[in-house]
Amino acid sequence: MLAPDELNEKNVGSGETGEGTEETRQSRRDWAGRQVPPPLIAGYAAAILSVTVATLIRLGLNPIWGSRFPYLVFFPAIVVAGLYGGLGPGLLSVALSAGSIVLFVLSLSGTSQAGSADDATGLTAFAVTGILLAAIAAAQR
């Protein structure tokens, strides 16, 4: 008769029990069984990629939305970066999103002057909210 640990080791990946398939779906584990986070570079790459995708989506919606909702599509990018990479990539996505909003969204909309007091207030509120979102997402990691 096999002990439960031996039974687990023999069935991992064989498809005989649900335990092996669950183990292969989870992220990597170290020698003590703790979950190993993705490599540092992958988290920052996820931040850059998510903000790039959000920027392209926002630019695609620019003919429909105009100057309305300049920050809306960037919040999910911050959450994705924070969940995948942690606080550092989450904060990087906040900074990249803010820069992207100023460079591409606010400057391209004809009704809003980039650099006005309203834009500064909105961007500050976005940054504070984004930092909080990144921290919450990193804590849920």
Commentary on this structure:
- It is a single chain.
- The protein has 141 residues and is an all-alpha fold.
- The chain has 6 helices and no strands.
- Helix 3 packs antiparallel against helix 4 (74-85).
- It starts with a helix and ends with a helix.
Summarize this structure as a short list of keywords or feature phrases.
mainly alpha; 6 helices; elongated; 141 residues
SSE topology:
Elements: H1 4-11, H2 18-25, H3 40-65, H4 74-85, H5 87-106, H6 117-140
Helix pairs in contact: 3-4, 3-5, 4-5, 4-6, 5-6
Shape: elongated
Total number of strands: 0
Rg result:
21 Å
Strand residue content: under 5%
Indicate the mean pLDDT.
Answer: 81
Helix percent reads 55-70%
Structural class: mainly alpha
Weakly predicted, low-confidence segments: 9-18, 20-25
The arrangement of helices and strands along the chain is HHHHHH
Largest sheet data: none
Distance between the termini: 39 Å
Total helical elements = 6
